[in-house]
């Protein structure tokens, strides 16, 4: 394709360097060396990397119908597997699922989840209240908070993992992410021997199944398999029940009959190999719910983890946010509470969260597309099957886009100025019709937690709070390796 590449080795391509240094850091380094658009090899599969905003606009928005697939992930069987969720699906199947799922995350449906979110946030505050004035490893508390919220929102099941420290759901979900981060041996092999991926995955599935059968404990059961089995049981139970609940499970089950006239006719759409109902099958609902549980847990938890790291190091940010909150509460009557309708009126909070996600994009690894029809963009001819991945860090730290204030500095007001920036300059939730479907939910959860906590507590550093985050680990989520420890103390004059 006439693109520069970093030095690569036979068989492995450039994957070892990525696995060693994390994808985001490695791409940023290569971009500095090779320019805005270049290529690298995952095993022997070519991947295009870009931080060229025009090219991103073309691929993700203008010509998105030629790129309606993600890069094939090491744990993905094939494009046509029945075990498929929104994140991994491609082409018409993705479009069909996205059309069905979009209304589930509409503002009116999300409003129905407010009581759940309030309940879980209040639990979080109760737990902080019991742990005031002492050093806390905040990621532990945030993992439990976001897990509690997403399980309740997705399934209506109150697992209350915030109090139950040995909660099995919590541990299984953490194990899934650990597997993805460490990219276990089998997954590495699927990257190097991509032609044999379905066979290797089939072999791994059978092996996992047998280990689960032989073992007398749950330890050998694949965590993803375990979660899927539990969701399966919840759906089976729900089908038998005649109760209308307010959670994602209910919304997806109802989407089979409610949302779209054409779905009622239940026409078939023709996929590349087999026809599919226009409705989502129960199996697809199952996989999507597992997807929501995973996508809605570690991402939001990490985003809040970064937020508390910033707050502990920037007392002036704590003050600004508290001042905005105090004024907001003072303007309203005694029974006033922050909720989905009014939270977006908190402009500084919005800029704060936006800046956190500029400096620490959580899920840059997922901002990629796979070419499904040969496409020419400028001089670049992109063949079928080649993936394009975005170097989000280089864009988010580009002085020409985000200056004049130093892009290494935390400065929320850079979002207040009336500066026109390309829509592909800010990518924490991806871009185009295939951006993060859970964005509104995630922002609501983050803002609710920050607003409610900062109204009551100050966030302080301890002698062990890092002042800079240097090392990261990255599977689908980029997390700091440095442990963020902070302390909460009660604000004066608050109840
Ligand atoms: C701070 C929290 C979150 C961040 C930073 C984040 C980020 C992302 C990113 C970067 C993508 C890829 C977008 C693209 O390719 O253009 C994505 C996709 C996705 N996210 Fe999120 N996400 C978050 C929370 C959530 C939540 C709470 C849910 C669900 C409850 C969710 C569900 C999904 C799904 C299903 C996709 C795939 C969408 C598709 O392929 O059509 N995410 N997310």
TrEMBL record:
<keyword id="KW-0408">Iron</keyword>
<feature type="binding site" description="axial binding residue">
    <location>
        <position position="436"/>
    </location>
    <ligand>
        <name>heme</name>
    </ligand>
</feature>
<dbReference type="Pfam" id="PF00067">
    <property type="entry name" value="p450"/>
</dbReference>
<dbReference type="InterPro" id="IPR017972">
    <property type="entry name" value="Cyt_P450_CS"/>
</dbReference>
<dbReference type="InterPro" id="IPR002401">
    <property type="entry name" value="Cyt_P450_E_grp-I"/>
</dbReference>
<dbReference type="GO" id="GO:0016705">
    <property type="term" value="F:oxidoreductase activity, acting on paired donors, with incorporation or reduction of molecular oxygen"/>
</dbReference>
<comment type="similarity">
    <text>Belongs to the cytochrome P450 family.</text>
</comment>
<dbReference type="GO" id="GO:0004497">
    <property type="term" value="F:monooxygenase activity"/>
</dbReference>
<dbReference type="GO" id="GO:0020037">
    <property type="term" value="F:heme binding"/>
</dbReference>
<dbReference type="GO" id="GO:0005506">
    <property type="term" value="F:iron ion binding"/>
</dbReference>
<keyword id="KW-0479">Metal-binding</keyword>
<dbReference type="InterPro" id="IPR036396">
    <property type="entry name" value="Cyt_P450_sf"/>
</dbReference>
<dbReference type="InterPro" id="IPR001128">
    <property type="entry name" value="Cyt_P450"/>
</dbReference>
<keyword id="KW-0503">Monooxygenase</keyword>
<keyword id="KW-0560">Oxidoreductase</keyword>
<protein>
    <submittedName>
        <fullName>Cytochrome p450 3045B1</fullName>
    </submittedName>
</protein>
<keyword id="KW-0349">Heme</keyword>
<dbReference type="InterPro" id="IPR050476">
    <property type="entry name" value="Insect_CytP450_Detox"/>
</dbReference>
């Amino acid at each position: 394709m006439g693109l520069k590449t970093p030095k690569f080795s036979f068989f492995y391509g450039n994957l070892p360097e990525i696995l060693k240094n994390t994808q985001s850091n490695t791409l940023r380094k290569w971009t500095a060396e090779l320019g805005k658009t270049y290529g690298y090899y995952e095993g022997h599969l070519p991947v295009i990397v870009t931080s060229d905003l025009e090219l991103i606009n073309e691929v993700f928005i203008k010509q998105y119908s030629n790129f309606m697939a993600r890069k094939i992930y090491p744990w993905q069987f094939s494009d046509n597997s029945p075990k498929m969720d929104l994140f991994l699906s491609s082409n018409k199947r993705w479009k069909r699922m996205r059309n069905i799922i979009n209304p589930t995350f509409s503002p009116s449906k999300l409003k129905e989840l407010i009581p759940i979110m309030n309940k879980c946030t209040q639990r979080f505050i109760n737990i902080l209240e019991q742990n005031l004035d002492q050093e806390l490893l905040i990621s532990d508390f945030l993992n439990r908070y976001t897990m509690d919220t997403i399980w309740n929102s997705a399934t209506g099941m109150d697992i209350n993992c915030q109090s139950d420290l040995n909660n099995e759901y919590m541990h299984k979900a953490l194990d899934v992410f650990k597997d993805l981060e460490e990219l276990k041996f089998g997954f590495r092999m699927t990257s190097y021997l991509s032609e044999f991926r379905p066979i290797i995955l089939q072999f791994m599935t059978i092996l996992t199944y047998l280990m689960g059968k032989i073992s007398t404990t749950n330890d050998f059961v694949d965590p993803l398999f375990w979660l899927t089995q539990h969701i399966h049981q919840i759906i089976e139970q729900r089908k038998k029940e005649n109760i209308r609940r307010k959670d994602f499970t209910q919304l997806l089950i109802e989407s089979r009959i409610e949302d779209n006239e054409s779905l009622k006719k239940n026409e078939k759409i023709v996929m590349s190999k087999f026809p599919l109902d226009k409705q989502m099958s129960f199996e697809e609902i199952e996989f999507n719910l597992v997807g929501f549980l995973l996508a809605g847990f570690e991402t939001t938890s990490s985003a809040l983890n970064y937020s508390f790291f910033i707050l502990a190091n920037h007392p002036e940010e704590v003050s600004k946010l508290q001042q905005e909150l105090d004024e907001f509460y003072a303007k309203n009557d005694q029974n006033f509470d922050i909720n989905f309708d009014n939270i977006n009126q908190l402009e500084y909070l919005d800029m704060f969260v936006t800046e956190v996600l500029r400096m620490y994009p959580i899920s840059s690894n997922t901002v990629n597309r796979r070419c499904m029809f040969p496409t020419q963009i400028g001089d670049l001819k992109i063949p079928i099957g080649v993936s394009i991945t975005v170097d989000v860090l280089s864009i988010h730290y580009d002085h020409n886009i985000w200056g004049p204030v130093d892009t290494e500095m935390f400065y929320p007001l850079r979002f207040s100025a009336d500066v026109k920036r390309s829509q592909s300059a800010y990518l924490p939730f991806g871009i185009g019709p295939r951006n993060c479907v859970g964005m509104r939910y995630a922002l609501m959860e983050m803002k609710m937690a920050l607003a409610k906590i900062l109204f009551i507590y100050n966030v302080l550093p301890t002698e062990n709070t890092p002042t800079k985050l240097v090392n990261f680990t990255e599977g689908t989520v980029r997390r700091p390796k440095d442990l963020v420890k902070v302390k909460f103390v009660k604000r004066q004059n608050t109840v």
